[in-house]
Structure formats: C-alpha cells, structure tokens
Design goal:
The complex is a heterodimer of chains A (114) and B (110).
Chain A: E1 4-7, E2 10-13, E3 19-25, E4 32-38, E5 45-51, E6 57-58, E7 67-73, E8 76-81, E9 90-97, E10 103-105, E11 109-113
Parallel strand pairs in A: 2-11
Antiparallel strand pairs in A: 1-3, 3-8, 4-5, 4-9, 5-6, 7-8, 9-10, 9-11
Chain B: E1 4-6, E2 11-14, E3 19-25, E4 32-38, E5 45-50, E6 55-57, E7 60-65, E8 70-75, E9 84-91, E10 98-100, E11 104-109
Classes of the chains: A mainly beta (114), B mainly beta (110).
C-alpha cells in the first residue's frame, strides 16, 4: 500500500519550454505532497509543499512563478517547470506522508534541459 | 550549521563487516526520525523509522538519542546489496516538513 506514481521518469526538453511532472497517490489520499529536487551528489532539497485545494507553500529561494504546483485533487499533484533552462536540469521527486508518519516517494523524474 | 548532518563517508567495507552511521540534528523540536536508502538515480526508500527505544530489523539497528540529538544506523554482516547511499531524515513537526541529510555512501566489497 501507499504507492505514489510519478511520471514521466525522464524527460529531455528544449530550453524555454515547459515540462509537467505528475504525482498520483494510488491507494490513499494525499492532502499534502512534497516536491524535492536533487542535484548530482547532493541531498534532496525541499522545493515546496503542495496542499490539496489551496496554494502551495514554497521554500525560500524557489520561484513560485517558475515552478507551478497544482494539487486539485486528493490523489494528484503536478509540478510544472516553466520556461526551463539547463540549470533546471535535475532529479525531481515527490513524496506524500502516510499514516505511519513515514514518507512514500514517487520514482522521480530526471529532467534534462538542452 | 546544517539542520541535519551525517558522516561524510564514503564507507568502503568488506562483506560481513559491521558498519555504523551517525546523524546529528540541530532542532530539539524534531519529532520523527527515519533512515532511507537511495540507490543511484532512484528514489529514496524507507529503510526504517527510528524510535527512542531503539529498533531492530534483521541486520539493521537504529537508535535515537534525544539528549544528544543524534540517531545512528548499524548494519551487521554487510552484504554486497547493502551498497547504497543512506539518508538520515528528520521531521520537525507533524505537518510533515522533512530535512534530509546529505547522505552517507556505503560500498560493500567482496
């Protein structure tokens, strides 16, 4: 139980285009999802907290207009990287908190902007 | 000072060795603690939660010392398949924001 499905697994896009990443909780309702970014050889850094039916909360230094988060239902949260640039190339991963206070992660999306 | 700090590693050990990782956290209000395992280019997977009383799962033992604000992970009888990066995760409150350590890389060699 407590599976989070994330896709796409990887995406290559041209600079200036937008990319949408989806995370779905398959067998539970996730009122809150967390979006992280991980650069090579670094740890996961929280970008934003996505709350169902309300605005996301962004961490300091994360541009909310660049990283659009939508959490319109209890099972789906999306992250859209707008006007992507090569420096946005990273591993993006979502997670949701489960009832046992552990976190279930999506499989991650490797974004490469060329 | 980082909110969560881990042994920098890397740890290179032979099969069968016992290895221990430490992690310290700076916020005394932290409430939940976890060890995650991350294989290269894959998502982190929960290895075990860490409780004040300590907990054991097979070859893995996790301990929490609230007074000294550190948690530890002990791996006994290391296997080649234990090679991975181990992440210490600390949650500050029940709202769920977590802070990850930078990870400690373990390589178990034949």
């Amino acid at each position: 139980g407590a599976v989070v499905s994330q896709h796409p697994s990887w995406v290559i896009c041209k600079s200036g285009t937008s990319v949408k990443i989806e995370c779905r909780s398959l067998d539970f309702q996730a009122t809150t999802m967390f979006w992280y970014r991980q650069f090579p050889k670094q740890s996961l850094m929280l970008m934003a907290t996505s709350n169902e039916g309300s605005k996301a909360t962004y961490e300091q230094g994360v541009e909310k207009d660049k990283f659009l988060i939508n959490h319109a239902s209890l099972t789906l949260s999306t992250l859209t990287v707008t006007s992507a640039h090569p420096e946005d190339s990273s591993f993006y991963i979502c997670s949701a908190r489960t009832v046992n206070y552990g976190y279930t992660f999506g499989s991650g999306t490797r974004l490469t902007v060329v | 000072r980082k909110e969560v700090e881990q042994d920098p590693g890397p740890f290179n050990v032979p099969e069968g060795a016992t290895v221990a990782f430490n992690c310290t956290y700076s916020n005394s209000a932290s409430q939940s603690f976890f060890w995650y395992r991350q294989d290269c280019r894959k998502e982190p997977k929960l290895l075990m939660s860490v409780y004040s009383s300590g907990n054991e799962d097979g070859r893995f033992t996790a301990q929490l010392n609230r007074a000294s604000q550190y948690i530890s992970l002990l791996i006994r009888d290391s296997k080649l398949s234990d090679s991975a990066t181990y992440l210490c995760v600390v949650t500050r409150n029940n709202a769920g924001k977590s802070t990850f350590g930078d990870g400690t890389t373990l390589t178990v060699k034949p």
